[in-house]
Design brief:
38% of the residues lie in helices and 13% in strands. The radius of gyration is 19 Å and the shape is globular. By secondary structure, it is α/β, with parallel strands linked by helices. Bound molecules: 2-acetamido-2-deoxy-beta-D-glucopyranose (NAG). 2-acetamido-2-deoxy-beta-D-glucopyranose (NAG) binds next to loops.
Length: 407
Amino acid sequence: MQRWLSSVVVVGAICALFVQEISAVQITDSTPRCRSPDDGSVSLCSELIDPNGYPCTEHTIQTTDGYLLALQRVSSRNANLKTQRGGPVLLVHGLFMGGDAWFLDSTKQSLGFILADNGFDVWVGNVRGTRWSHGHISLSEKEKDFWDWSWQDLALCDLAEMIRFINLITSSKIFIVGHSQGTIISLAALTQPDIVEMVEAAALLSPISYLEHITAPLVLRMVGVHLDQMVFAMGIHQLNFRSNVLINLIDSLCDGHLDCNDLLTTITGKNCCFNNSRVDFYFEYEPHSSSAKNIRHLFQMIRQGTFAQYDYGIFKNLMLYGQTKPPAFDLNRIPKSLPLWMSYGGNDALADVADVQHTLKELQSTPELVYLENYGHMDFILSERGKEDLYNPMIGFFRSLGKSSSS
Ligand SMILES: *[C@@H]1O[C@H](CO)[C@@H](O)[C@H](O)[C@H]1NC(C)=O
């Protein structure tokens, strides 16, 4: 069981990038046009949120490139809080995870429930390829083209469309909370002026833009053996860690080279604070699928030390970007006026402290920081003490902004 989790977490933890132009997204109503074949009638609301008594509604949006994404809207159980005085918050999950990531523990421990309890209007994002998204208007998940995207598309199409939709429905600027890949795509999207103007503030858990100093031994070994190219050569476009092919690949990477007995640790770093007896339950939901191209993009960042668009090689780069190297996402373009809050961990093998410092150096603003020495990558969403360590300070930060702008 630990193996599943660790492989899921590994990939998910690595993330982020941007595109120059945001495509306009069409907004559809809340009736999905189609569902991915194995979704059936199961929804995130009905699985994890309704049973806890929180009002939850399902919405479907369509990206400009035709993907149908699920968004859930969750509010407080307490009717007195229905005025939503906290404002809209969009939760952006990490790699190999889905919107369920924010609801995996008790209502007292999971960020999604805690935000609703505090009167926030909670919106849950689910990117393309995850179990809760609803496929594509014309492509099937069995087709190679369905998986032809990387995190820059998640930033410029999926996240951009979610923000636009929530902004339209609520007529309000929104708070963004991202974890891991969710921070990569948030940072990339926030470099775009037409997106950032709809955002009130952003809170980033395990923030990633640069991945140069990643220390996770298993990830470094995957990069070293060019697992990304291997997978492409095998004709695999969808990365599904529930498949035997990938499980066998990981076993062979560990065999004789690495002690992968604690697979999660070799991928995410030593997590201090999540409840080990809940791992089987987590695996009922994680990992979700991602694309082989996305992993390749992340591995490019690790190899090259860049926070840039996908590298197609010199000739295709010239055709697509007009230059031999892919254009970088410029963190300096995130406006100084955007309030930022970040929390990072001393044992996070994916969001290394040196890389977090690099991100901070390039930002114009000085984010509010919460450093947790014992935290590994998964602790930021699964810690039993997350409320005290992280979520209460985050909510305090959001509230302080409301006060200063209204005074
Ligand atoms: C840890 O998980 C088990 C199984 O779900 C649960 O019974 C226990 O209460 C959890 N411990 C804490 C401190 O939340």
